[in-house]
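Exercise 7.
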Amino acid sequence: MDLILQQTVNAFALGGVYALLALGLAVVFSIMGMINFAHGELMTIAGYVLMYCGLAGIPFILGVPLAVAASMLAAMAMERIAFRPLRNASGATMLVTSFAVAMILQVLFQNLISARSQAVAIPELLGRSVAIGGFVIGVSKLFAIGATLVMLVALETFMSRQKHGIAMRAAAEDFAIARLMGIRANTVISAAFALSGLLAGVAAVLWVSQRASVDPLMGFTPVLKAFIAAILGGLGSLRGAVVGGFVLGFIEVFLAAFLPVEWQEFREPIGLSLVVLILVLRPNGMIPAPTLQAQKV
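Solution. The predicted structure, written as tokens, is:
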């Protein structure tokens, strides 16, 4: 029983990171119809800012908002420089552009910083564990779960009560009608990228706090998993992205914990098979976006 509870905590911590990243992808997709595969590089930028803050002697608690702010600024710059000029291009063009931006940033990280993994100074507190009942929980796991819950509540409040959040929801429902009602496209899209950068920055802080290192490809695997989570939950659905992230986190953690040793090398294929099975039963995802229903052909 203790092992199950322990792995449940681990699953919530990992699923929280996937949920935040999937939300960032879903926010941009719901408005622009584009999957931004350079989203992982926003995460890497935040990780490197944390690293340099540590080298400069800046306390971690001050480095976190700087890292998140850097991720947001990078996301807005990415939209302005790479995606805005191609806004009326085809989806394939936008997709290729996002891959190109990701590759360019990875090469810059490798050549201007280092191709190797770099250590990040993490507070000693995050490396500790606390005993609750009969099992031990890492403080970094609790930090990840708490930060995820705060971000999800804050995002829900922003999207339902703030002017820019309501405008983003309207644009996600029907961008053309929203523009006719006076909502400015540039403002909404820039805000969507800023929000995705915020979520990527927070996810990076949670990821780095559990691993204490950063490398040029740090964001690739988490964002790939977040893309799977977004599809699992319902591509374009914000609530679906959250649910998909946590479900994928539970699948990965519980397979790693309870799959027999001789089957561990097949853990990834088994996990993806479970995802495919869910999508067979729910082709539009677990919580489909109302404007993105699959069509039979």
